[in-house]
Amino acid sequence: MNYGYVKVAAAVPRVKVADCKFNAGQIEKEIIIADGKGVQIIAFPELCITGYTCADLFAQQLLLEEAEMGLIQILNNTRQMDIISILGMPVPLNGVLLNTAVVIQKGKILGIVPKTYLPNYKEFYEKRWFTSAREVSETTARLCGQVVPMGRNLLFETADTTFGIEICEDLWAPIPPSSSLALQGAEILFNLSADNEGIGKHAYLRSLISQQSARCIAGYVFSSCGFGESTTDVVFAGNGLIYENGTLLASSERFSFGEQVVISEIDVEHIRTERRVNTTFTACHANCAPEVPVRISTEYVNSGDLNLTRTFDPHPFVPQGPALNERCEEIFSIQVSGLAQRLVHTNAKSAVVGISGGLDSTLALLVCVKTFDKLGWDRKGIIGVTMPGFGTTDRTHTNAVDLMTSLGVTMREVSIKDACIQHFKDIDHDINVHDVVYENSQARERTQILMDIANQTWGMVIGTGDLSELALGWATYNGDHMSMYGVNGSIPKTLVKHLVKWVAENDMDETSRATLLDIVDTPISPELIPADENGNIRQITEDLVGPYELHDFFLYYFLRCGFRPSKIFFLAARTFKDVYDEETIKKWLQTFCRRFFNQQFKRSCLPDGPKVGSISISPRGDWRMPSDASSEMWLREIEALNG
Question: Which pLDDT belongs to residue 528?
Answer without folding.
Answer: 67
